[in-house]
């Protein structure tokens, strides 16, 4: 297997999850911008999409640890290599934490986490208003952090494509 490109499963999962995460960020903004009942469909979309992201990030971690990944360019400054590694770790942590915190938050609100009209997830916590309030703030701040990290990730990809003109972005495209 070539180490110049990510494996096909890694690339498919990367781009699928990128689309899902962008959708989730915009859905989340739409949800908090209005408490109207007309926006209930956003909540009904947000919950199963969050659980799908949770499941896919687990699959993605398995793929990450079982497939060879291309190395960063040898001439990349060590501080940039460290930033790349830390930002990837942060992305994975956030992709795991946000759905789990959201699930726990809904559980603490005393509401069911419905994936469809007939599929209900078990509550992670018992209903408790102070816990719900804490988890809601945590979920919000983690979402902001995810948004900022995604922007930095995108900026890094564009930096490699447009400034350094190296193979980093291409390794995820083909």
UniProtKB/TrEMBL annotation:
It is found in: Cell membrane. InterPro entries: Cyt_b561_bac/Ni-Hgenase, Cytochrome_b561_oxidase, Di-haem_cyt_TM. It comes from the Bacteria. One of its GO terms (cellular component) is plasma membrane. Its cofactor is heme b. The chain crosses the membrane at residues 12-33, 45-63, 89-110, 141-163. It is a multi-pass membrane protein. GO terms for biological process: respiratory electron transport chain. One of its GO terms (molecular function) is metal ion binding. Keywords: Cell membrane, Electron transport, Heme, Iron, Membrane, Metal-binding, Transmembrane, Transmembrane helix, Transport. Residues 5-173 form the Cytochrome b561 bacterial/Ni-hydrogenase domain. Belongs to the cytochrome b561 family. This is Cytochrome b. It comes from Pseudomonas turukhanskensis.
